[in-house]
Amino acid sequence: MTAVDPRRALSFGAFAEEYQRWRPGYPPDAVDWLVPPGATRVADVGAGTGKLTGSLLQRGLVVDAVEPDPAMLAVLRRGHPDAVPHQASADALPLSEHSVDAILVADAWHWFPHAAAMDEVCRVLRPGGWLGLVWNTPAPVEPWEFELVGIDPDHHGGSELSAPGLPSAPEETAYFPWTWEVTPDQWCAYLATNSAVAAMEPAERKQHLDRAHAVVARVCETTKRPTAPVRHQAFCVRWRPS
Ligand SMILES: C[S@@+](CC[C@H](N)C(=O)[O-])C[C@H]1O[C@@H](n2cnc3c(N)ncnc32)[C@H](O)[C@@H]1O
Question: Is 23 in contact with 15 (CB distance < 8 Å)?
């Protein structure tokens, strides 16, 4: 996973409702892999609108949902009143020392200031706890899937996935495949919540969305189905302080 423009880190609040509506959640087997056995309290940092938070609450965990953007946090509070919300940043966690069994970060670690966030991870984790990271990422197989992900400005070709900013300690990684059935309109609505696409000039954004729409529509026409199956994977990392 490649680090991206930090100026976009706090751009999501401008389209928080669309983000909540169109972004996918995380596959259950990936969430299970990220939660330590016996965990009771975890932090979901960069929690956004709560796409991971909800899955953690469903597992009976106490969840500290940490999110700096007030618009994203407002959607999270509405959808997940049982979470403990904190408007804060990864480099200044409002959590006490050794207070959580895991710090979990979904599609957000690449936005964080890594050295400062890592200091906070080490301060807040209970002994034996881990930092768990997950990214949902396309896993193209068919030529049309490569064409589709090539239109996504945040997709970095076939380069191997890795988590930026971790100390040199060995990572445990896992990949959980899943398939997303999308209509052309659904894919475009999702793509519009990509911060790079959202930051484009209107004409350029329209061109990107039109191209993506055409790819998905072509598949639907060929297969005579309303949706196209876009292969994805949840790329997961566990890191423990030494
Ligand atoms: C792509 S969204 C992911 C949201 C959510 N975790 C999910 O899975 O849908 C990235 C989130 O990271 C948040 N973020 C950006 N910089 C951050 C920082 N320094 N500390 C904590 N969160 C941050 C953004 O506000 C945004 O909500």
Answer: no
9 lines ligand 1 (CB under 6 A): yes
CB of 95 sitting under 6 A from ligand 1: no
Residues 92/111, Cβ–Cβ less than 8 Å = no
* Class of residue 97 by CB neighbours under 10 A (exposed 0-12, middle 13-18, buried 19+): exposed
Cβ(67) – ligand 1 distance below 6 Å: yes
158 three-state secondary structure: coil
Cα–ligand 1 centroid distance for 204 (angstroms): 25
With contact defined as beta carbons under 8 Å apart, do 91 and 38 qualify?
no
Distance in Å, CA 44 to ligand 1 centroid:
10
Q: Would you say the CB of residue 46 lies under 6 angstroms from ligand 1?
A: yes
Residue with tokens 């959980």: 176
Residue whose CA is closest, atom 13 of ligand 1? 46
**Ligand 1 atom closest to the CA of 136, numbered from 1:** 8
Cα separation of 47 and 168, whole Å? 26
Tens digits of per-residue pLDDT, 171-230?
799 999 999 999 999 999 999 998 889 889 999 999 999 999 999 999 999 999 999 999
Low-confidence ranges of the chain (pLDDT < 70): 1-7, 156-160, 168-170
How much distance in Å is there from the Cα of 241 to the middle of ligand 1? 22
- Complete edge-to-edge strand list for the sheet that includes strand 172-182: 84-86, 62-66, 41-45, 100-106, 125-138, 228-239, 172-182
